[in-house]
Amino acid sequence: MDRMNRIELPLVSRTTLKERYQEAEPTYREVLDRAVSGVRRTLEASHLRPTIKSRIKSFDSLYSKLLARARSAPAGAAGSGGAPEVGTGAERPGEVSVPDLFGLRVVCPFLGDLTRVEQILSDAYEVLEVEHKGAEFSSREFGYESTHLLVRIPHEEYADLELDAEPQCEIQLRTILQDAWAEVEHELVYKADNAPFEEPLKRKLAALNANLTLADIIFQEIRDYHRSLHAELFKRRRQFWNQIQRTSGLPLEHPSEGRPEESEPPDLMDPSRLGIASDTIESQLLRALHAHNQHEFERAVELYSEILDSEITSHLRAIVLIHRGMAFFAMSSYERAVTDFSATLELDDDNWKAYYYRGMVHRLQGAFREALSDLNRCLQLDYGRFDSLFARAQVYFDMGNYQKALSDCDAALELEPESSEARRFRKIIEARLLSEAGNWSG
Fold it and tell me: In a designed cystine with 111, which of 141, 220, 320, 378 is the match (CB 3.0 to 4.6 A)?
């Protein structure tokens, strides 16, 4: 099959080239589809699911590029033979190449994804060229930004097809906002047929691009903050549960241990490394959680209290009260913990987390009826939650109601059948039931 990614000089007629293009197009589309599938599999293996767009260069676009390259080819190049530079898309003397005949575009939500995707693809494919477009701009300049990788399509993806040249593919990496800008700019500027663009319009485009660039940066900062917050909250919940079990005497770890989505929380980032203004409530909360997880409980209480002394919404106040209550609990100040959880419920009577945490503390205080009441309300608000059912099973166990404890434990196992802690606790309940049955028969 005639190749279209390398064309010999002098160029044959446009009609002949178009016939060759149309003949090769079905095969090229099959190659492209397989390349897209390969890139998608590679990224999904790393738990990335970006949008992937693809295209084969249209004949008109291909022919325009061939003409431009043929005009710039050195005089006397036709028929001179020779080999291209090793490992690149370089042209042999006597021909012109079109390395972006196949094109993929990987569009990611966040700036941080681009670096990760580039590394993953560089590890998985033979990369011939890398170009970071827009890297030349100064801090005061804005324009088209994108990372372009020229890769060799793996032989196994086209081995059964009739190709007489190793296909290469250009992969563009962009954020959603970079992609939106590139699409709009292409329509307004690139396709404007050299129409004069007045300075006011240029300034508006530059301002728009600057805003989109800033938005990308802010989105990334927010994402970094949320990941850090998630990691801190995970550690704090685990500490709370483990302290509950140590104090109550049951040999059980946190019921969420081993869940893939929580056993590997996002990398913890120290609050000082985040790009969030130091005086915002968000950064104050993150600092408080960080101190909490570092077992600096008095410092955490101090930071939570500073937030509560600020002008904040009732919704945020309820959240911070829960956190401070958990810090008081870690300090074994159970009454103050209950006070904060109760204050949360005065602001938000439907807050199942406050009922859950207050119920757990009531249990440690030996107030089993109050604990049961809180956990019942918790499950009314959010039934089908493993942690709450598992906690109520332990309260029933403490109260000597082993049959109800077994029922709740079984319901929890229906939700998390792989939970080793729930299975272990079930054996404890069964042993107690058997013991009671033996005492009764004796």
Answer: 220
Angle at CA of residue 271, ends 267 and 312, nearest 5°: 120
pLDDT at position 196: 57
> Which residues pair with residue 151 across a beta bridge?
127, 169
Summarize pLDDT for 175-192 with one digit per residue, the tens.
999 998 888 877 776 655
In degrees, to the nearest 5, what angle opens at C-alpha 255 toward C-alphas 268 and 318?
A: 65
Rounding to the nearest 10 degrees, give the CA dihedral for residues 229, 232, 236, 239. Answer: 160
pTM confidence score: 0.59
pLDDT digits (tens, 9 = 90+) for 412-422: 999 999 988 89
What is the rounded CA–CA span in Å between residue 204 and residue 328?
54
CB 327 within 8 A of CB 292: yes
The H or E element spanning position 427 is helix 420-441
pLDDT band of residue 433 (cuts 50, 70, 90) is: very high
Strand (E) or helix (H) holding 95: strand 95-97
Q: How many CB atoms are located within 10 Å of the residue 320 CB?
A: 23
DSSP per-residue codes, 169-197: EEEEEEEHHHHHHHHHHIIIIITSTT---
Q: Which domains does the chain have, with CATH numbers?
A: 6-74+91-194 (3.30.460.10), 224-383 (1.25.40.10)
Distances (CA, A) of 225 to 231, 270, 276, 285, 367: 10, 10, 8, 11, 38
**Nearest of 187, 115, 183, 177 to residue 149 by alpha carbon:** 115
pLDDT tens-place string over residues 371-414 = 999 999 999 998 888 989 999 999 999 999 999 999 999 999 99
pLDDT-derived band of residue 44, with 50, 70 and 90 as boundaries?
A: very high
Query: By C-alpha distance, which of 373, 391, 363 is closest to 254?
Result: 391
Tell me how far apart the alpha carbons of residues 27 and 33 are, in angstroms, rounded to a whole number.
10
Q: Provide the pLDDT for residue 83.
A: 41
Nearest-angstrom CA–CA distance, 165 and 102: 13
* Contact (CB, 8 A) for 40 and 54: no
Q: Are 307 and 330 in contact (CB under 8 A)?
A: no
Helix/strand/coil for 157: helix
